[in-house]
# Entry
Amino acid sequence: MKRVLFFILLLQFIFAENNITSLTENVKNTILELVKPQTDEPTLNTNNTTIQETIKEKKEEDRKKRAELELEKEEAQKIEQERIRKEQVLAKKKQQLIEMEALRKHINSLENKKKLIDEELSKDNIWANRYLPYETYQQLLMKQQEYNEEIKEYDEKENLSIQEQIKLKKLKDEYKITEAKLSQLSEYKKEPFSELIKIDDLEKEPTITNPWDIITAMSYKQHMNTLKDEYDTRYKSLKKAVEKLREKSMLLKELTLITTNKNYSKELVVTEKKLKYFEEKLEVFGTTIAAFSQQVSQHNLHMDEGIEKEIKKSMRTGIIIVLLLVFFLFIKFLINKYMSENDLFYGINKVANFLFIFLILMILLFTYLENVKALMTFVSFASAGIAIALKDWFMSLLGWVVILVSGSIHVGDRVKFVKDGVEYVGDIVDISVLRMTLHEDVTLTTIYSNRRTGRMIFIPNNYIFTDMIANYSHAGLKTVWDGIDFFITFDSNIAKAQHIAKEVTRKYSKGYTDMTRKQLNMLRSKYSMRNTAVEPRIFGFFDTYGVRISAWYLTNAYATLTLRSTISMEILSRLHEEDDIFLALPSQSLYVDQPAPRPPLKEGEEPTADLRAN
# Structure
């Protein structure tokens, strides 16, 4: 009995897979019925039959429920599958849209990159700009050939339709337009890069023989380096253009693959052709620049060696000249110290200066001139020819050299020279190769003689050999002697008049007197000067109408009239204050009511008519 109950419970658990709660309740009720107390055997059999029927009903009911559940499950699976399929379709469409949008953005990005490349090539690259007209000419030439072939095809046909005739006319018009464009662009049909890749021949290396050649060599090196930098810049520009064209070619290849636009294919063909041309020129230009750089390096090496050699030679020459200068200064020191009072002081100074200059010239001549003998011969013949053909010019040039070397006249000196009896006094404002320029000033000469001043006078330099030129301010001596004359009567106090003249002149010329004394002492080393008295000088002389008092004093060479006027007025004022000094003037005696004294007649002399009348 227990086994039967266990078997029934086991079946209930197996068939109640999808409805556990209901099956558990049925099993519970069945067990409760079975465990009730049983009174007899028939009841037991009835219960078994009932249990079996119940089990069958339950099995049938469970089977139906499972079938329904299976149907519901299948339906749910179908719905789920349909949902999943729809979601997959939507996801696929969404993915396609995303991919299309990404592709569109990628295409736009490629087009923008290509556009930037085109802008860079058209604006900032000389090679692309130079190639563009040539490319346009070639494209027009190809179009012209195409038009020509099509025109020939139509000309070979005998009977043309109206449409074909219209097309033929249109082709001929296009041909003429293209031909006109080609004529305008004819200058671009030649090789576009011939001038850009051409390397100029290097100039001949300068020979470095003196310090000035070092500057020439440095300039030559700078010129070569500038050319090299220019060619390197061109090469980099061409290389950049090639890189941009390669990048553009890759972009066009990608655009050709991902788009159906045929324009990209045509542009790719043109770009590939252009790239090939640029690459060829880049290779040729690179080889040319490499050879040019090698030449520049060799020239620079030679220049550096020549400069170094010349610097060493110049340093040696400079050291020799410095030592010679020190020796010369030592000799000058000895001369000034021990021979300043000697009469030979001036001559020895001149000889020492000449020897020093001569030695310096000889050192420089034999240091920097390779063929001195040939130079001397050439200079001799050239000087003779110039002296004969251009005497005045040569003499003016020689006079300029003498003026510079001798130092007799400097810019700023006040000078006087005479031409055709006319005196010109003024300041030297310029000394050129052929002439001196003098600015005329107001002086005593202009007051009494010329009555004109302020002119610019041009004096040929050869005048220093043929005419006398007076220098009022030579060698720093800025003062000159000026004199004032006045007449007093014979009965005047002559000594007092001389004393007044001396006091006034000494008073107003004292500053110039002291300055002149110092300047003369300095000039004693250059000139043999014996009379160096600088005090005012007063002289008295007999004259027709009385005694001439001549007062001489030192004054500024550039302003003599000012001091002359001041001293004249002061002397006149002082003379008027004296009672025993009378100015003498031209006079005439008149005899009234008495005969004029007659000189006695000489022996044998007859009285004149005037004498008879008296």
